[in-house]
């Protein structure tokens, strides 16, 4: 994780040693070449170090620094747009849900249902309480009563109205008033629980049969839910990403991005030092050839 720092430190060390050799020993040509190589490596490493600092941090002495903090909104909008339009589109979500065989998974879950454990959950008590409160509401009782009166035959409807006038409580009112006390008692009816559990398991088995009516009904219902989920997810994914990123301050965003990319970014600094050294070698050789090219050619000619 410190490859860039080690490369920069090594370049500085070689530069200092080569400079000392150049000044204190007679090996001037070799020392000049090493100084040029180390100098170029040091410059390349320092420039890359400063460039990477400019991406993540704002410094008054570095014009244009703080690329990420200065472009926070553009960065957030770009990330959210890319995720929703390219990486996690509603169509991709729909395709993935359709590949998951949700009907079969529902069937497996129903086959393993244990009603005693399910009904013992605190969430079930809250569900029963909400159901009782819903059916106790006057407007719900009125709707049930209106439906019941339409569903009854004319003769029974007249008898039912007459009984209501002499004080008989309506079926809808009785249902609503008894629901709160009767629902919790159902758990104590072992025979009823066994019958219900057997029926649930049977439905689960039918969901594994593509030819069954239960499978066809479940497929239609799930397809409808998937289609609606896909449709409603349009714009929501990007908005969710945008909201979560906006909750982070600049320092947190910088830390998250830098911590995930630090290892790869350090290779930029390493390559800056290596290529700097390579180009420094080329420039040093070109200077040597410019100063001593005639002598080198003469020696090569004599050697032949």
Structural notes for this entry:
The chain is mostly helical and 304 residues long. The radius of gyration is 40 Å and the shape is elongated.
* Outline type: elongated
Total number of beta strands: 0
Rg calc: 40 Å
The residue-averaged pLDDT reads 77
| Uncertain ranges | none
Beginning-to-end CA distance, first to last residue: 51 Å
H/E series = HHHHHHHHHHHHHHH
Structural class, by secondary structure, is: mainly alpha
Helix content: over 70%
Number of helices: 15
Q: Note the main sheet.
A: none
Quote the beta fraction: under 5%
Looking at this protein, list some descriptive labels:
304 residues, mainly alpha, 84% helix, 0% strand
Draw up the topology in text.
Layout: H1 3-24, H2 28-56, H3 67-70, H4 72-87, H5 90-99, H6 102-111, H7 115-119, H8 122-136, H9 138-151, H10 154-165, H11 171-185, H12 190-206, H13 213-232, H14 236-246, H15 250-303
In short:
With 304 residues, this protein is mostly helical.
């Amino acid at each position: 994780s410190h490859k860039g720092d080690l490369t920069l430190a090594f370049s500085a060390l070689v530069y200092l040693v080569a400079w000392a050799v150049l000044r204190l020993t007679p090996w001037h040509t070799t020392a000049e070449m090493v100084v040029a190589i180390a100098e170029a490596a040091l410059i390349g490493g320092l420039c890359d170090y400063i460039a990477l600092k400019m991406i993540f941090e704002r410094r008054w002495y570095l014009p244009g620094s703080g690329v990420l903090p200065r472009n926070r909104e553009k960065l957030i909008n770009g990330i959210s747009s890319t995720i929703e339009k390219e990486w996690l589109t509603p169509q991709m979500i729909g395709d993935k849900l359709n590949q998951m065989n949700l009907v079969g998974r529902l069937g497996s879950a129903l086959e393993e249902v244990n009603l005693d454990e399910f009904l013992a959950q605190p969430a079930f008590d809250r569900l029963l309480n909400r159901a009782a409160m819903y059916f106790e509401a006057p407007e719900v009782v009125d709707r049930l009563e209106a439906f019941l009166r339409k569903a009854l035959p004319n003769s029974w409807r007249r008898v039912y109205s007459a009984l209501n006038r002499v004080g008989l409580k309506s079926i809808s009112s009785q249902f609503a008033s008894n629901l709160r006390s009767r629902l919790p008692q159902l758990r104590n009816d072992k025979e009823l629980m066994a019958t219900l559990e057997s029926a649930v398991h049977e439905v689960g088995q039918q969901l594994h049969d593509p030819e069954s009516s239960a499978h066809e009904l479940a497929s239609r219902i799930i397809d409808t839910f998937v289609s609606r989920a896909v449709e409603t997810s349009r714009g929501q994914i990007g908005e969710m990403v945008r909201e979560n990123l906006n909750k982070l301050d600049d320092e947190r965003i910088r830390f998250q991005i830098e911590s995930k990319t630090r290892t790869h970014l350090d290779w930029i600094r390493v390559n800056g030092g290596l290529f700097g050294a390579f180009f420094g070698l080329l420039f040093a050789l070109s200077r040597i050839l410019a100063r001593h090219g005639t002598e080198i050619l003469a020696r090569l000619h004599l050697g032949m």
